[in-house]
Amino acid sequence: MSTFGTLFRVTTFGESHCAGVGCIVDGVPPLMALTEADIQPQLSRRRPGQSALTTKRDEKDLVRIMSGTEHGVTLGTPIGLTVPNEDMRPGDYGSMSDIPRPSHADYTYQYKYGTKTSSGGGRASARETIGRVAAGAIAEKFLRLRYGVEIVAWVSSIGDIEMKEDVVDTITRERVDSHPTRCPDAAVADQMTALVQECRNAEDSVGGVVSCVIRNSPVGLGEPCFDKLQATLAHAMMSIPATKGFEIGSGFRGTTQRGSAHNDMFVRKGDRLGTVTNNSGGVQGGISNGEPIVLRVAFKPPATIGKEQATVTYDGTSAVLAAKGRHDPCVVPRAIPIVEAMAALALADAALVQLSRHAAVLPFNALPPLQNVVTPLNPAKAQDPTKPADDRAHS
Amino acid sequence: MSTFGTLFRVTTFGESHCAGVGCIVDGVPPLMALTEADIQPQLSRRRPGQSALTTKRDEKDLVRIMSGTEHGVTLGTPIGLTVPNEDMRPGDYGSMSDIPRPSHADYTYQYKYGTKTSSGGGRASARETIGRVAAGAIAEKFLRLRYGVEIVAWVSSIGDIEMKEDVVDTITRERVDSHPTRCPDAAVADQMTALVQECRNAEDSVGGVVSCVIRNSPVGLGEPCFDKLQATLAHAMMSIPATKGFEIGSGFRGTTQRGSAHNDMFVRKGDRLGTVTNNSGGVQGGISNGEPIVLRVAFKPPATIGKEQATVTYDGTSAVLAAKGRHDPCVVPRAIPIVEAMAALALADAALVQLSRHAAVLPFNALPPLQNVVTPLNPAKAQDPTKPADDRAHS
Amino acid sequence: MSTFGTLFRVTTFGESHCAGVGCIVDGVPPLMALTEADIQPQLSRRRPGQSALTTKRDEKDLVRIMSGTEHGVTLGTPIGLTVPNEDMRPGDYGSMSDIPRPSHADYTYQYKYGTKTSSGGGRASARETIGRVAAGAIAEKFLRLRYGVEIVAWVSSIGDIEMKEDVVDTITRERVDSHPTRCPDAAVADQMTALVQECRNAEDSVGGVVSCVIRNSPVGLGEPCFDKLQATLAHAMMSIPATKGFEIGSGFRGTTQRGSAHNDMFVRKGDRLGTVTNNSGGVQGGISNGEPIVLRVAFKPPATIGKEQATVTYDGTSAVLAAKGRHDPCVVPRAIPIVEAMAALALADAALVQLSRHAAVLPFNALPPLQNVVTPLNPAKAQDPTKPADDRAHS
Amino acid sequence: MSTFGTLFRVTTFGESHCAGVGCIVDGVPPLMALTEADIQPQLSRRRPGQSALTTKRDEKDLVRIMSGTEHGVTLGTPIGLTVPNEDMRPGDYGSMSDIPRPSHADYTYQYKYGTKTSSGGGRASARETIGRVAAGAIAEKFLRLRYGVEIVAWVSSIGDIEMKEDVVDTITRERVDSHPTRCPDAAVADQMTALVQECRNAEDSVGGVVSCVIRNSPVGLGEPCFDKLQATLAHAMMSIPATKGFEIGSGFRGTTQRGSAHNDMFVRKGDRLGTVTNNSGGVQGGISNGEPIVLRVAFKPPATIGKEQATVTYDGTSAVLAAKGRHDPCVVPRAIPIVEAMAALALADAALVQLSRHAAVLPFNALPPLQNVVTPLNPAKAQDPTKPADDRAHS
């Protein structure tokens, strides 16, 4: 359904041709500084129309916080977020109304719900992802303030053009955004651009792979046996439209290795054990081990293409479809903030659950009384507007 | 945690060195014939000690139905299942107590729970999977009786030895089991056997890939936007121990294709639309489309190996570990029934949810009164022991 | 948290002093006619300022459907609903900022979240209930169209003034609304009015009891053993602000009876068994039996009163509090649509789950193919705007 | 369904006439001493056949821990618990097979599940409660060790005989068990005994009320807006068989009071604020305030009575039923440990969730590293069997 998470929980709404899209983020810890300025950047990175590579649909995608904060600080209550749909052109899809787009959601939505939206697949619209990205920005801020977590995704391949460099330890969003394809290797990125342009010219599309690293994850996250961290991360990623595959650490490549080569030997790193290699991708036994969590997500080529396709109508009559609407020849550059958001949502939820497990086993006196730490009996101080909010509760 | 599913829901318990393992399966539809004989075959396929390729640990793994049936028919109440642990040898792992096994769960379990079980990783034991397999056998029977669903998994690669033949439409469990490796291509299987034997001799291990097909899935299963069918299948599969990757349909290979080549053109198939190709792997827009659901799961090489490994102890001192316990050089042959079970559990849950959606939109009179169909006012007939139970409710 | 329900699921957001309140309703069956006009009436019944008996705070409380419908018909996707907060006067509560209101949520919210909202209790605001009421109106429409369910709540007591007449079988909302107190016995209602006025004059408050009947509930709703129908109804009702008690059927009075007097004897009623009496309140063994579901909810007197109270400040210093803000001397008249909404939400969720159980045990051919009933291969008909929407899918 | 709780979560199985009953308790914090001896006492208090007042059915009800502990200490993994059914006499109920017992679950189970168990109501059997009581004993131990929580329930009325004394602050289980009725007022208890005996002689039954206090609850438990503490407590209690009503604090009586009399004035108590009176019953705004949590649960008279009842058969034919099986004339004495168990389960789950909220807002350094507190890099100490387990982790 449209809810993800147990304690840090997002519920989204909205499709292409309605008044707006958005979400409710429940379980956000209180006392965290939060304004629209924390959320908008990722929404803007997700927004179409950013470069010649993506769809021309123009949306401002300005988010509004409806609830859950006062004076720029979270209250611990649900945060409602809305983004209006400003550029609705339902007519665009009209010519496709009799022919389900091959490999799109038109047919299955039609079959499952017995209805057909103006845009065909309805909720299988890229605009659905706005709610995820907005919620993910909040999750990410919590993880960064609380643990110093850094999440960075990048385009590692488009079609058969693949970036080889290992950037797990050093990659930054700035470097990712330095090229419109969001592939941080400039030479490879230029080849990708050419390929995408070629597909656009051919009214065709192409797929790609997004890689993502989560650095500074706390140790101990993940809830075996069914909610192992790689399982909830896989669930999160495979819920993104157009995904066909997921890998953590060595992934499919690791199946070809011997155990003696694949095993990550331990070594002492500060107050914990670390590993020399990271074929595990930061997760062992379904639980984070403190090494970078490294994952890869496969995106198929977009289904909606201008090129003619020989298919059938809803009632089975042979037909030729040449889609006319706005559409991307390649979605992976725009998928970057979506992958980052889902990573943040899965991790924040696992972190809150583990905080509970952790706190539960501490001796009674180890957990400071809440009111002595963040909220003295006179609570005015907790909302002192003269101090930077970030400094108040989480640092 | 240890529960999977919304309406068809399994909760498991048990690790290596306790009295037993098992599960509770809640939400099983009533009036379905069910005895231990429906469950035991998959448990026996999962059992170690079946061939020279697998661990020598000997377990009878006999399942007992504790509740939820009477006279061999399900009641609609939770089904409790237990399997005793008969071959507990905690001493085997004693020598490893100071050194966390590289890439095993020893360290992360220790960190997360603050404890260490006799077997090291505790719940990260292959015995944990017994509960899944038992529950999956029930889910599978429901799907088979209700929809004619067929689920077959097989070994498609071990190490770099890969089976090329496309068997999605024809593969059977009989053919899979005709070779101890469970690779249905005999020539390839022989090469796999040699490779596994080589790893065993070298006290090393090797990974592999399990492929799985779900045939005759009803159309319409999957709950966007977060519980798309590929997302819950990915969650299910990536919760299996030792998994590193998941693909549906074209998977990572599909990222290299153009949309015009990747799109599955529609064609009329009986009362629904089918597709000519199946790069979608049976799922479009997160919802099953009636084509075979095809997925692949990557298993890393087992972490526990006899070969010496230079690592450190829990307190960070350099050490050499050469594991002495019983262990498989390759887990994929035994993973077959586990993958099938998780596929069945994810699909049965999605099917129950969709039955609700479906029934909710039917005109009021379309859904026959329950008591007129399966339970007349005199209910004795529903439990008539002279008729084969399978014939009563579901066929 | 802020989500209620498994398949028919509402998530709410919003407190007093933010931009707005609202909810997301997920799992609403598709193809149901739905516009704001279906939702607004219950919101208007909930709205303050309707009579001299309630608070003077003036809100338009106009709901907007953000998503989940097209052309006035539900799509099966989440329905986003928002209601702006138009009359925010945060200054009103300023004088109470040092003294937690006795029996209000000020202190516990402060302790739990470490923060304090402008309005004191933040989410413990009557405005939180707007999301429930809006969602409940949708649930109720589904239940009415699908099953003919009728839900009516009324004020059965205020203070020690109690209505004695049994109106379970005949009560209508029109009759309930015929008196501002929403007590359908005019003579008793007049006494209640006088009592509330007396409390208002004394700057005091008074509690009361809301009764509710659900007529035409389908048989078979409720999910033992933990989600018995009376348990989810109790959960739903006791989540409403200011509730202190819940009864179903005979309630506490039933504890004084002998079994022979309390048992509801069976009698044939059409195609099902009914009961002569209804001490069970429509639920037996945690499952609806087709008789009217009858429940009662106790509301305490509102905590915020103008009268002086000798209490202490947050830091424990003796103080006298005389609340100055707008506040109701009695909330039960406005609680009527809230109780109805929660009843509808609990019942709709149980109904969807039971539709799944029901459909799962039908013989394979008993459930008509979805596309043949509501969505022929040419789906245009399903959205024929020339037919009244209510007639299309559900009648 | 058969699962209760979010982080501290019990799933139960079993009915009267199967091999056994039991449960899985997931989310139990690790490192807590736990053996069968912690669980058996409450099971024995629940067991029938303890006095002339209860049913003669004789069960040993010996619990076995199947998993989740080693050396008497919890591992953090799911705890499987089983209790065999030893005294199955299915024939006893045979004579009732054509006539649904009035006010019992026979008819609704039959309608919902389309089946009929040997015992009639199947899962609506008192034996279902064994799993709850066993799980509750574990929850209670966690709450006691971690917070010093004390939970005591007692019989406050049977029929119209009511105990008036206020024992909330002082009542102990020893005093409750000092009389077979479990009413701690000996004089009133004697009258109750006479009433129950009178009902037994008349082959009739009688209801009653169980009161329960939770002392030393931590402040801050409960998750608005839907999972307020009184809502989850109500859900928990109303899921117990035969319940018809729930009250917290002043309950229905509180509806007759003025706010000025009902409000609980604050006063400083140590490092928190307490209240002078406790009409709130320990919960304000849906969140525990540190005062004793006081609740009352109404139990109807048992439906199964020997006295003749004029009713109808399943197919609507007039019939007279005089039940012959073993049955209690009054269940409230045996309900005591069940109420205590459900209180513990609801509270433990709320406590784990709040530990997460609490820990999330602490400054980064406030939460000690887990491994430094309970598990040094050499973890052997954590399992030192020479120290009493209770002293290790939780005190």
UniProtKB/TrEMBL annotation, chains A, B, C, D:
Family classification: Belongs to the chorismate synthase family.
Role, per record: Catalyzes the last common step of the biosynthesis of aromatic amino acids, produced via the shikimic acid pathway.
Region (Disordered): 375-395
CDD domains: Chorismate_synthase
The UniProt record lists the keyword Ubl conjugation: no
Protein name listed in UniProt: Chorismate synthase
EC id: 4.2.3.5
Any one biological process term the GO annotation gives: chorismate biosynthetic process
The record's free-text note on cofactor binding: Reduced FMN (FMNH(2)).
Domain of life: Eukaryota
Catalytic activity: 5-O-(1-carboxyvinyl)-3-phosphoshikimate = chorismate + phosphate
Top-level taxonomy: Eukaryota, Filasterea, Capsaspora
UniProt GO cellular component terms: cytosol
GO MF entries: chorismate synthase activity; FMN binding
Species name: Capsaspora owczarzaki (strain ATCC 30864)
